[in-house]
Write a structure and sequence with these properties.
Blueprint lengths: L1 H24 L2 E9 L5 H15 L2 H10 L2 H4 L5 H11 E5 L5 E9 L3 H22 L10
Antiparallel strand pairs: 1-3, 2-3
Helix pairs in contact: 2-6, 3-5, 3-6
Length: about 140
């Protein structure tokens, strides 16, 4: 009888532990790349972030990120277009609350943390390349 009680207790503790772990791994998070805009005027910072945000909506950039990070398979999307829509929904480029940095972020769940980190970095790289094409004068400030 004592052995049955011990087994039941172990199963209960294991179930509670699994439920706790599962709830933590499915917590929504946001992973981002920070870029300092501290040396700019406040109006310049806002314009900078707006242009980066506009560029990040470019379908060519999104398709490149989806292909590079294999997001169709990672997110279980039906096709590339669906993964691009999902990326568009998950990404954000905003000025930090203190106004000193720009955040290129991707939202997801905790168990996707490695994918989110690499995807936000890939998005930053793609937008940076496009930005430097348009504004070559910023190339020295945007080197990796």
């Amino acid at each position: 009888m004592l052995a049955v009680g011990a087994v039941v207790l172990i199963l209960l503790l294991g179930g509670v532990g699994f439920a706790f772990y599962n709830s933590k791994m499915n917590t929504e998070i946001e992973r981002l790349v920070r870029f300092s805009v501290d040396g700019m005027s406040e109006a310049g910072r806002i314009e900078w972030v707006e242009e980066w945000s506009r560029l990040s909506d470019d379908e060519t950039i999104l398709v490149n990120v989806v292909k590079e990070k294999k997001l169709v398979a990672a997110w279980g999307s039906e096709d590339e277009a669906t993964a691009v829509k999902e990326l568009l929904k998950r990404k954000s480029i905003v000025l930090s609350p203190d106004g000193k940095s720009m955040h290129v972020a991707i939202k997801g769940i905790r168990k996707e943390i490695d994918l989110l980190n690499s995807t936000s970095a890939a998005l930053f790289e793609e937008v940076r390349e496009k930005f430097v094409e348009i504004h070559p004068e910023f190339a020295p400030h945007l080197q990796p």
